[in-house]
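Minutes, structural biology subgroup

Action item carried over from last meeting: produce the structure token record for Cytochrome oxidase Cu insertion factor, SCO1/SenC/PrrC family (Microbulbifer epialgicus). EB confirmed the sequence was re-checked against the source entry. Recorded below for completeness.
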Amino acid sequence: MEKKEQVSIFESAQKSKSYTQRRRLQGISIVASVLLPIAAAYIVFYTGMGMPSGTINQGELIQPPVKIDDFKVTFQGKQMPLVNTESPKWRYLIFGGEECGYECEKLLYTSRQVHIRLGEKANRVERLLITGGAISADREEQLKSEHPRLRVLQLNQENIQALQELTAHQNVADIRAVLIDQKGFAMMAYDNHHSGNQLLKDIKRLLRYSYDK
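Output recorded by EB:
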């Protein structure tokens, strides 16, 4: 009788162990089914691996992506990194030229409309306008009124030129917006030949497959 009880206890323990293993495998399978497609989509977007030409990204890919978070800028009289990686946002870095003329204004308008159309996800995106020096008080007030979410940053001409060279693309004009990822990599460029719908399509896809903090 005692032997039968020992066998029963052993069988019960084996069943319990088997059940635990099945549950663990099910858990791993569920997590993998969620994370793997996201990781795959992110890799495809960045590297182009397995991606049919001209069917995914609307902007021009900067290949390889360029790390630019070590550039220092002036904002409201203070020196700070160009990209604050402690606040993991997607950023449009807008090169507007010396005076932000007509082409710059068009790009600011397009990026503003994209920002608005993101709705509740707008706080995960930031727009930065790079200037080579301080702007007039009237111009600053105009920008604040027309583009309340825009940050205007000052950078010396040498560093502006360096940034432009690092993020240049043969199919994109000098007056352009460069999309920077959450880790400070410049990875895509747009100019006024790109529509707001194209910018919106790219950023929505990236927000879908990236984390929020």
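Discussion: Helices lie at 2-47, 102-117, 137-146, 157-166, 196-208.
Next step: EB to file the record with the rest of the batch.
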